[in-house]
């Protein structure tokens, strides 16, 4: 995913450089959308990828639960409020599809050893965007803030547990997020590739009904971690 991000930025930049012999990195670039960032409010949308993980803490030292991340898909909307010249407040609600595969090394049976944790999140981040001074048609930025996620695949209300092949998580979780990106100004739109980390703030695991369960009995906390790569259009 990181390689894809770097490659896309390189392609976009190279293409812009070739436009009319000037482009984004020329000495005298054509300034696109010169007054775009002066708008009090503007809107956009994003598409992207995610890679979710879990951070486990244990009650007693033991073999770690192995987490295999897979690549998921993101889609959402952007609402941007200009606070001052270099600071914006952003609300980016979106739908995130993800899957994590958990392997329990202490369980001998190969079927019970594996749990596929499929999640569909409705994600509500409220972020502050800190932009640098615009240079031609490029403007780097960093972003950070808090978010709430609703996990539609949590199984939080199910009475069955892992003994019935049902892995359960809390439906709502809180996170903090940090990331960076680049605003690239084209003739008719602004394109913003970005990469962001998300870090869960509270335990999301619902324990099995049996206290000494091999799946949940030794887990002190299970918190979400993840990486988002988004491509935004304004």
Averaged pLDDT, please?
A: 89
Oligomerization status of the protein chains = single chain
Number of helices: 2
Total domain units: 1
Helix proportion range: under 10%
Tell me the major beta sheet. 10 strands, antiparallel
- What are the segments in which pLDDT stays under 50 over at least 5 consecutive residues? 14-22
- Rg, Cα atoms, Å: 21 Å
Give the beta-strand count.
10
H/E element string? Answer: HEEEEEHEEEEE
Shape: elongated
Keywords: Signal
Protein name: Outer membrane protein with beta-barrel domain
InterPro entries: Beta-barrel_OMP_2
Domain Outer membrane protein beta-barrel: 39-204
Keywords:
mainly beta, Porin, ten-stranded antiparallel β-sheet, 2 helices, 10 strands, 9% helix, elongated
Can you offer a commentary on this structure?
This is Outer membrane protein with beta-barrel domain. Keywords: Signal. Pfam families: OMP_b-brl_2. Strands 1, 2, 3, 4, 5, 6, 7, 8, 9 and 10 form a ten-stranded antiparallel β-sheet that branches. About 4% of the residues have low confidence. The protein is mainly β. It contains two helices and ten strands; from the N terminus they run H-E-E-E-E-E-H-E-E-E-E-E. A hairpin with a 4-residue loop joins strand 8 and strand 9. 9% of the residues lie in helices and 53% in strands. It has one domain: Beta Barrel (Porin).
